[in-house]
Amino acid sequence: MLAALGGSSGGGGDGGGTGACTATYTQTSTWNGGYNGQVTVKAGGSAITNWTVPVTVPSPQKVSAVWNGTPSTSGDVMTVRPAWNGSLAAGASTTFGFTVTTNGSTSAPAVGACTAS
After folding, report:
1. How many whole angstroms separate alpha carbon 97 and alpha carbon 2?
2. Is 3 a residue whose pLDDT tops 80?
3. Contact in structure between 59 and 44 (CB atoms under 8 Å)
4. Sign, CA torsion 83/85/86/87
């Protein structure tokens, strides 16, 4: 059912219902030594007023910048919360992005389950 609604199992959330959201990752650009990534956060069947998305960046990669989100980091996990874009109507979406220095590793980050309220 999730695929029929345009969702994917790569993000978090249950695809609908009260307080649900999904998070999907896209690599937007790459260069020798780094890349930019973007995460789209989408509200499910009900409006949400806040969201949180964990992003695990594989070591030895390091995040050097984040936009449209407020990050906190513990080890290789960066947890992003909204900077100003937390309230979303049912089915609406927003994005946040980040720049990574690869330090020799080209592995993609893992985006965890979106948590909404």
Report:
1. 24
2. no
3. no
4. positive
The string of DSSP codes covering the chain is: -TTTTT--TTS-S-SSSTT-EEEEEEEEEEETTEEEEEEEEEE-SS-BS-EEEEEEPPTT-EEEEEESEEEEEETTEEEEEESS---B-TT-EEEEEEEEE-TT--PPPEE---EE-
Q: How do residues 33-63 score in pLDDT, each as one tens digit? A: 999 999 999 999 999 999 999 999 999 999 9
Torsional sign, CA 14, 74, 105, 103: positive
Question: What is the reported pTM?
Answer: 0.83
Q: How far is CA 90 from CA 35, 47, 49, 68, in A?
A: 31, 4, 10, 20
